[in-house]
Batch of 2 targets.
Target 1
Amino acid sequence: MDYKMQLTDEQLALLNGSKGETMAKVMKTLVMYGDAFGAEKMVPVTSEKGHLVTSFGLKVMKPVYDLMDQLIAGGALSGQKFSVDPKPLDPNVPKGLLDNIVFTKLMYSMQDNYDAQLNKLGLIDKNSYTCTCYMDEVGNKPNKGDILSWAESSAVVYANSVLGAKCNRNSGIIELFGSIIGYVPYFGLLTDEGRKATWIIEVNTTKKPEAQVLGSAIGMKVMEDVPYVKGMNKWLGTELTDDVCAYLKDFGAATASNGAVGLYHIADLTPEAKEAGEDIIAEGAKVYVIDDAELERVKNNYPVMWKDKNAAPELCFVGCPHLSLAQLNEWTDNVVAGLKKNGLKKVSVPTVFTAAPGVKEAFEKTAKAKELADTGVVLSYICPLMYMNNPLCKKKNVITNSNKLRTYTTSRYYTSDEILDIITKEVK
Amino acid sequence: MKQFKGRPVVAGKCEAEALVSHGGFNTLASFQGALQFGEIPILGSKYKQTECDDQNNADLYRKPMLNKALCLPQTIGSTTGGMVLYCANALGKAPSCMLFSEHIDSLAAAGAVLSAVWTEKPMVTVDCLGDEFLSYVKDGMKITVEEDGTVTVE
């Protein structure tokens, strides 16, 4: 094959089949991929663990299963253990008989087989299914400066921006290939130049912006560029506390799903912005000013996909991306207080909170777990997005505070305060 | 008729009818209906021609994408994007070619390269066609792509 990248002897040998035909094809894929971006070389993956985006055993993904079989048969296994996005199914999440048939017989009939493939390829363990692998309770948290071969847009943008690791917005399969070979093409967000901000975002709001709406506005404006966000210190401070990290997790997920942001800098807060200050802004950066009216405009433009826009909600999802332990605690307190204020014992809309298995387990060891269960809220490890991706759910009136879930499904977006208000009041 | 010169990411020849997205193309959101339900009786009836399922894309929502020349700036959204394109192509549910006005993004590049290396039917992919290309091309125009990345629109 023709290629432009400079390869080491070891990499060239792999490409020429020193470890078999399958490894050669994996290497060829990465070389072609790197060449598309003018990568001059490949660099070692330095993180301890990887993260894959594809967790769902959808029947229709046969080409992926066939490819995985080829990898396993060819001995092309991941050189590092990896976590993977959340599972699509959980028996505890409310659904009807028809949903069950559609989910298990028609859609996710390959789940067990695919789980077995992931195990063979290098999955950490059965609790490693989450989009927030970087939570302390999960344990796949890269160090600053680590080079990653990850996918999952919300995890990549968090690792780059909040943790200061270096990762491109890799696609599913490509991220596994990087973990198999142990090298990734050097371009984009791995380079100093690629990490410079090409947009300045000036936030001039009169109250703390809803993370998911602010992220959405920025994502839709800058698309795949790198924004440098000013004006957030008065709302977030200058330290990466648990609450701030949770805010940035939700903000980043919205930038990545409503646009294609892989890295953002928050002035005086995120690691590289703290170190380099405004030197991290590229010359000629464009400016986007966000005020209350702009956020309102963005929110009001979200399409409502419900057939009857005045219908009562039938299901509520909170936790896309998965909730942190601090968020679970806060939501529990808020739901309990909201119900008490409104004279109710249980939430008025079937509600599911989602979190990583490790976070769920930690939460269930606390007294708050019973408090939450008593409100009727179900706590699950599920991926709400995968759960909702079917024609039956499309007809359901689902509400969420996740801009990512709104983007990919027919769920209707409300702010966290609005969601709390809806689920803790009697349905009229 | 007008010609545009781009960079072949996956070189090849192709003729198809144009389908134009002026905004970022969300791959997962666009293909999810066709991929998940296209083959399921009743549920899949509205996805037989890979109808776009992205309600946020006013240009493409509910329009058939199968065998079209998909003209777009870049792809956006979930990092399943490349894998979704790979599956769509391997299952015969993809556009004939993808023509990017801007530099290809990492997710679409992954889909194009995976299709080229791991399937028998690479998806012709050309990028860097320029803003003028996306302003000029309209739904239904005839597109001809040459091996060297030359795209003729008429």
Target 2
Amino acid sequence: MFDALSEKLQATLASLRSRGTLTEQDVTAALREIRLALLEADVNLEVVKQFTAAVRERAVGSDIIGQLNPGQQVVKIVHEELAELLGGPAAAIEFASSPPTVILMVGLQGSGKTTATAKLAHYLQAEHHSTVAVAACDTQRPAAIEQLVTVATNAGATVYEQGTERSPVEIAKWALERAKQDGKDVLIVDTSGRLHVDEALMAELGEICRVTDPDDVLLVLDAMTGQDAVNVAAQFGAALPLTGSVLTKLDGDARGGAALSVRSVTGKPILFASLGEKRDQFERFHPERMAQRILGMGDVLTLIEKAGKEVDERESEKLEARLRQGEFDLDDFLSQLRMMRRMGPLQGLLSMIPGLGTQLRGMKVDEREIDRIQAIILSMTPHERRHPELIKGARRLRIARGSGTSVQAVNQLVKQFAHVRKVMRQVGRGRMPDLAALGRPPR
Amino acid sequence: MTPGQAAASSASRKPTQLSGPRRNHLARVARDWDELLLTRRGRSAAVDEDGEDADGRRRGAFSRLRESLRATRQALGSEVAATFSRTLTAHDWDALEESLIVADVGGPAAAEIVSGLESTVRRERLDGDELRERLVELLAAEATVTGGAPLHIDLRPEPTVILMVGVNGTGKTTTIGKLAWRLTHEEGLRVLLAAADTFRAAATEQLERWAERAGADIVTAAAGSDPGSVAFDAVARARGEGYDVVLVDTAGRLHNQEPLMAELAKVRRVIANQLAGAPHETLLSLDATTGQNGLRQARAFADAVALDGIVLTKLDGSAKGGIALAIARELAIPVKLIGIGEALEDLRPFDPDEFARALIE
């Protein structure tokens, strides 16, 4: 199975620490790992080649003195390049100077156009207070119009549909007139899924594009797409003036390297991420998060970096220093728990920890358990939090009562914490800890 | 040990290099409907209205597939194709490895396969056309599952229950529609559809349209009702009214969403409770465009509902579905059917030779 890139790089470049600069050979060794990681993430081979060439140029000869270690340094370069490639200038929907703004949704069958159309309608109403109508131009797939009517109406949008008798081009034209008459701010045109190699259907899309003159043409792409993403993006891009893309099914566990392929082929930004069956599970695309996901990056230090961004840089630096000196106490643990909660669902966070992901596959994180841990720590005195080894007998009973838990629960936390602290000390000494041990009960 | 794990461990013992008589081993693979479907009248008794023999029909099907793959072949295959006219150099093997990677076979699997092929070819001292054919044969063998699920679909149980599962948008409903048409029109069977996707808006309506086209009957329930009860009712009705086959459509679900996978396992249990031995065939619908995540999908669905085969859909695009090769290697789950278009007859038995050829052409 795929292990964390950073761990592999650390192993590959372990001998480098003393030398201080990365040589051509070191970089070549590192790039081999990066290539495999990107391929595993479904980044297209050609894109991988271009990307690794760019990283090589930046990495060779870079100064690594004072850095954590050479592996981290290379990962940092890769991550920065990746985030830049994925991100670029802040991207958003282009609104027309005079309404309605027309957004054309295109993509392969099953990529999630209809769902994304309804979610986008919901998003634009909620975030931009726009009045939104959708045009039902998928006359191909059985019951596609019924599906759009249901989901778009639920999302609060008006649906313009004329059944399956008229051509998609006529329906689109008619819907645009209706949208103008009804004074809608936005018209989203849902189209049937089609293969990029189907010339007739691609020509039809071109015609829809001509009659509606869209402000945005969004390619809807399944995050699970493999190497073929470049062909899809290139063909849709050749037939239509794409302005961006929407990445769907990101609630799955695909690394989503297709994002990089598409971005690199079309040169257009990824605007939205769709991640769930509910209509509000739709958000602006975050290049940073995607870069980490593609790399399978994330270790304890990355988690702290992430935490730092959620809180503030200084607090994070302090925490990191304390970690390395092994002065990690229950107060730190508590503030870390709180930061983690702020960063989002724990399940997602856990998946960021390399090695842990596969070993804890199927493990469910009980968020209430975290609340219980918080309650226990909050029932301790500040002195006890700094010196958990004091917690015995009467103190233990008091804490259990105060937190509404049991003596066993308090005991378990103290033991677990001692174990975590041991692991943290290993990190501080620069050793890669046995992260999986964090998920095991202490012996 | 779950069936999925058992299959995985037996597959992992499968050597990459091939030896011994390959032809008879490959001959066991279904390349035609007559071979794929095991019916009560013996092998499928499809009638040749058009007078074409089975081989002719097969050629027809795959010439279409090949036609649709032409664009990609030209784009990326020329280098590899040129290669096979002479003895292979290290550079050529790299090119072959890359073409497998571009076909979504996956980096590590591509490397292993190529090094296996390389040593076999060296040992056998092949070159030119002979070498090219041998490579196709070896790759086809890689795509052929041995020691896993049976390679045919057994329609002899009365009724035969086929459960269709997969991630959202992979083509479950469309596959069921085409399969229903095949079984009613070409095999003369009575088919009942079960609209157990009660979650997605208009999923039932979509399946109803397919039932009309295929001439099959359908059991439906209100949106949001229990999918297990739809499946149960359908199997009960099929038993009572003497249907030959029940095709159960389920809601698309991401394989990492545990409650949804648990729900699917329940649908399977409910079917088994209604009819011992059912579902007789559980098929995973897999989009050929899918990358490395396909392996995880197959593993998760195999763990939840024990897969008997894969339907590789959307092969009429430029994607080649190479992840199916990785799945065959790792999990020993065979591809049984492929989807190559939107028409009713665009569902075909899987042919490993053609699949292998497309991978490197």
